[in-house]
Design goal:
The protein has 14 helices and 12 strands. The strands form 2 sheets. Strands 7-6-5-4-3-2-1-9-10-11 form a 10-stranded mixed β-sheet. It has a two-stranded antiparallel sheet with strand order 8-12. Strand 3, helix 3 and strand 4 (about 115-120) form a beta-alpha-beta unit. The protein has 2 domains: about 5-245, TIM Barrel, CATH 3.20.20.70; about 250-350, no CATH class. The chain has helices at about 35-45, 70-80, 100-110, 125-130, 140-150, 165, 170-180, 205-225, 230-240, 305-320, 325-330, 335-340, 350-370, 380-385, and strands spanning about 5-10, 55-60, 90-95, 115-120, 155-160, 185-190, 230, 240-245, 260, 265-270, 290, 395. By secondary structure, the chain is of the alpha/beta class.
């Protein structure tokens, strides 16, 4: 029986800006998910038996804040009325931050919403790609939103899409976050997804640039205790490299229904959330059904799912057989395989070489240098950076 580990909901496909690297289709549409569609979704999810005791919900895939707080208050109360005893629902928003004001901050605090803000670093990096529909930069309004969150003491993290230019400036990026009181950071790379073809992934030397960026950013944060509390790429790599050897590597992206994504109209997809809304005749546009007319528990029997699962598992098997990083990855991300190679039945991508291999290399290199005694001025000093000492046994050091 499946277990839903994450539910991604598109409240509206509309976005108020026009990022150069955006892959989302229909972002001019101002359609809004209906209350009845949400009722149909959550009533079926709660009745499915596919849940543990916590259901994380992310409102995303458009700009969720173009709908006002009252829309979400009503949605949350509807969900609460449907929720069975013993199940906790946690809500998160991923936003460009431009619409955050006192009302939004009050709502986030009241509802204990997890907030992620997309900002690509200082103005000169951010305004290169994150533009208004008229082509102007969005930095001023985004940073104003972040400052509003800080004034209201609302916890948040940021996601920054790295370009070749920002990868060459780790200190400038670090100093910016520290100056703005940004304590939790996540780094994405500009991916090839949907109709968007990444410029960054094609750059010569991009893998070395990404490795060196993470290494220096990690060193800077270690040298300034209390400056940056969380670097997602480091935290994930450490957790994947150093773990009890009886802990299996989990990859939500390749497990059916571990992630369930729904668009505003009720169409459902699984595996990589980015597949929702993309087109592929061979897989019925990656759609399994519609919550307004189909039973959720019947979707595992859909032929479109069987075709996707067959090919995704074939690709995972290829990764298992050929890739020394399999134990920290679990077979890659279907969306990136499809975007870069044109098929799920494939192995490594440029995206996984950056986000999995190079980050893993960085942690493994840190462990090796620490075993050799460190050098006092490097992120490889495991005690100083908080990286746990590997035990003599019971630890899987993946990637070797």
């Amino acid at each position: 029986m499946p277990t839903i580990e994450l539910l991604v909901i598109q409240p509206t496909p509309f976005c108020n800006i026009n990022c150069t690297y955006c892959y989302l289709p229909d972002r001019n549409s101002k359609d809004v998910v209906s209350e009845q569609t949400l009722i149909n979704l959550f009533s079926q999810v709660f009745a499915s038996g596919w849940l543990d005791d916590c259901l994380p919900v992310v409102w995303h895939a458009g700009e969720p804040l173009v709908l006002r707080p009252e829309f979400y208050r009503n949605a949350f109360r509807t969900i609460d009325r449907l929720k069975p005893a013993g199940v906790t629902v946690s809500h998160a928003f991923q936003t460009n931050g431009m619409l955050i004001d006192e009302a939004w901050c009050a709502f986030f605090a009241e509802e204990k919403v997890n907030v992620g803000v997309s900002i690509d670093g200082p103005r000169r990096f951010h305004d290169r790609n994150r533009l208004t529909r008229s082509g102007a930069g969005t930095f001023d309004k985004t940073i104003a939103g972040i400052r509003a969150l800080r004034r209201a003491a609302v916890p948040f993290h940021v996601i920054s899409v790295l370009s070749a230019e920002s990868m060459a400036a780790p200190r400038e990026m670090f100093d910016f976050y520290v100056a703005e009181g940004i304590r939790e950071v996540c780094f994405n790379v500009e991916e090839s997804e949907g109709d968007h073809v990444s410029r960054s992934l094609a750059d010569a030397g991009i893998e070395a640039a990404y490795y060196n960026f993470l290494k220096e950013f990690w060193r800077l944060s270690a040298s300034r205790p209390g400056s940056i509390d969380f670097i997602r790429e480091i935290e994930q790599a450490v957790g994947q490299v150093i773990r009890p050897d009886d802990t299996p590597m989990g990859n939500q992206m390749v497990e059916p229904f571990a992630i369930v994504s729904m668009d505003w109209a009720g169409n459902l997809s699984t595996f990589s959330p980015e597949l929702l809304g993309l087109k592929n005749a061979g897989y019925d546009d990656y759609l399994l059904g519609n919550i307004n007319r189909d039973a959720l528990v019947d979707l595992p029997g859909r032929p479109s799912l069987a075709r996707m699962l067959r090919d995704i598992r074939a690709g995972v098997a290829m990764c298992r057989e050929t890739c020394q990083y399999f134990s920290v990855c679990g077979g890659g991300e279907p969306i990136n395989k499809m975007a870069e190679t044109g098929t799920f039945v494939s192995t490594e991508t440029k995206y996984c070489r950056l986000t999995k291999m190079r980050a893993t290399d960085l942690v493994l290199d840190a462990i090796e240098r620490a075993r050799e005694g460190g050098n006092g001025d490097d992120c490889s000093d495991m005690g100083r950076i908080g990286l746990p000492e590997p035990a003599a046994s019971g630890i899987e050091q993946a990637g070797n």
